Amino acid sequence: MNPVLELRQVACVRGLRTLFEGLDLSLQPGQLLRLQGANGAGKTSLLRMLCGLLAPAQGEVLWRGRRIETLREEFSKELVYLGHAAALKDDLSALENLMTACVLGGVGTRRAEAIDALAAAGLGGRERAPARILSQGQRKRVALARLVLSRGAALWVLDEPFNALDTAASAWLIGLITAQLGNGGIVVLTSHQSVPFDDSVPQAVLTL
Amino acid sequence: MTPVHAAGTFEGLRCLFERDLRIALRRRSDTVAALVFFVIVVSLFPLGVGPEPTLLRSMAPGVVWVAALLASMLSLARLFADDHHDGTLEQLLLSAVPLPLLVASKIAAHWLCSGLLLALMSPLLALQFDLSPSATGVLMVSLLLGTPLLSLIGAIGAALTVGVRGASVLLSLLVLPLYIPVLIFGAGAVDASNAGLGVAGHFSLLGAMLVVASFLAPFAAAVALRISME
Q1: Closest residue in chain B to residue A114, using alpha carbons only
Q2: ipTM reported for the complex, 2 dp
Q3: Is the Cβ pair B1, A151 closer than 8 Å?
Q4: How far apart are CA A106 and CA B5, in angstroms?
């Protein structure tokens, strides 16, 4: 079977420093990849390269055999990227933020679905609260609620998704990721701690 | 499992447009600040120059137009900077909707909250300069045609300076020189009207520039955004 996501001889240069080079990687549907490494090792840079936000200094990133910069929106439709920042507008409510993010990501979302997703993320009753007054963990939950509505996306790229989450939310997120892997999705995430997934989940670890 | 249906390009554009307008409505202070700045700058001139009607009449177009340029600079710096700051700009770059269209949608929302209001305010300010009703009308139309141009051209500069320290100063240096043609033909239209000449030529040129800029500026700004986000 051909790999869906493939990196060939990828190098990353930030400033004058080469963070990594000659990186080969291929991921199949249903695979989880966890990136780990010291601060500044290039974890986030690699994630940004996977999404096409950062062009590799050398090498190429392929999605279903085609370079992602030629695919652009076609690739974006299959991708969910949650960066380090929660990407919320302070002046909008949790619900408005979630619905905007989904529609821009190409997933049409009804109000009721979005409210259910927020409830699943543990924000039931806080839908109308402006993002400004939410705590770090709650902001993260709003961002992660998008995953509930984006089950159709083939690739999830998550930057430190477990940061600022309490144990209940972490367990919920692990459940979401496990279900997504079961449905044949690919998940790439960075995490400082090892994440307690079931042993049945094929977890590859890449250390930068 | 919830049914997932795709959101189209149009849905995405409307969503972003409404989002930006909603934010502007909830944060009226930013919009009002630019408007008040415009009014104050224009009003300072009659006070400083003195009540000489012919002098005021002849300088009115230039003063109003320069004040409009400066006022539009105030809000431009935040066109993409706010989105960059909270991480939503990355999401726009990864959106299922083509980026140039999203940029166009943001520019349209920006113009509604800045340029349009300046243009609507201008007849009131024209009173201070004793402009004739016809010249006032020409001033307003020239602003209606010209301020979208300011938002379009400014968006390219705003995209280039996203994430740069001292962005607002750099933005002014980049963008103000590019505003010169708009200023010349915008203010020129009112001058021509004051002198009793036809204004159709000026309006045609402003219109032509607007058409070209509406087509090219979103693409240029989109490319600039991708470069500045690397």
Answers
A1: B2
A2: 0.91
A3: yes
A4: 9
